[in-house]
């Protein structure tokens, strides 16, 4: 094998394919080196030269890439875990246990082989979970592995027809969200591994996206029906289903998708979302759900300039960090709607950032007074605050639910950090409730503010200069705080 072919094959297998794959014909595991040994016979110099003759308009590099796409590919399984799923260690045994887990795995491999694919991957048995390094790499790479698969075979064990697929428990699990969004081609199977449609591929996302970008409708009515059912089951519109791209945009909307799903290990609320947001975290089971989600949000903030990441309500993540500006879980974004989204500009000259003193952020801080408060021993404490009209904001009454306490010794304010959004033709902006016990002396006079817990969004109606803010004139009125 020539050097360029060897390098291309090595790079493709070791960078784009999972650590272990099932060799379908023999129903056994192969590592990457074994996969390369198996495939290299298909990449002889004679084969390359003949393909170059057959495709004179293509470069040698293009020919090699096309061969990689034809042969170095795998099918991937998306499913809901049940009892007695096969493990990596059991797959190494010569005698496989005849239980339901292995039956499902064999049916998956049989279905994959019908696509002319030699290799398959399942999260149950293709990860050596006894190896912390392999587990770490696998979880970090999971989104890309689903994205790189030739096809994703999705097994909906409780479903018998497209019309009732939204009742399947698969739609309630945390990890299956990225397994829906990442693959480029998807085929759905129902109970007993019966295909839910007569199509070879139920959802070819690139094809659907290309047709829609040309203003054309989805060609196949079955695919259109499948998209409608998936959108109904997930709350994700069909555009996002076919054109999703990982990154730090639309954080609240994506968190709402995740909030409707559950995981067995609390840390997986964060780990299962890494790929969707284009960030990477070290895997540390045992750190706790709050700490893991805090690290996820920190990683997102490091690559995002969109202040909408702070548009949440509910309990903050309880960690050893002093900041209370980061949420504890995706559920904190529930209630965020498409009408609240849009391009929002952070007010500060410097980007907001997490520091060892809290989240450093520039805010317009507006004083508020306590209008009413429920008794201290109320199950869900409530308070009403009054923010008087100014050149920044209309006269506003804010109703908030705790848990919190209100003290006459404290001062209160609303902090606004971004330009907001347009809702039904009216301008709105998000804010947060702040409290401070007096004013601290010394150089850090802007310190001392802490964010109050509110179970509902603090949404305000700006006026005057805040509707279309001139950031240059706004800057003198901002206060950089650590909260």
From TrEMBL:
It comes from the Eukaryota. Pfam families: HET. InterPro entries: HET (IPR010730). Residues 74-159 form the Heterokaryon incompatibility domain. PANTHER family: HET DOMAIN-CONTAINING PROTEIN (PTHR10622:SF10). This is Heterokaryon incompatibility domain-containing protein. It comes from Fibroporia radiculosa. The lineage of its organism: Eukaryota, Fungi, Dikarya, Basidiomycota, Agaricomycotina.
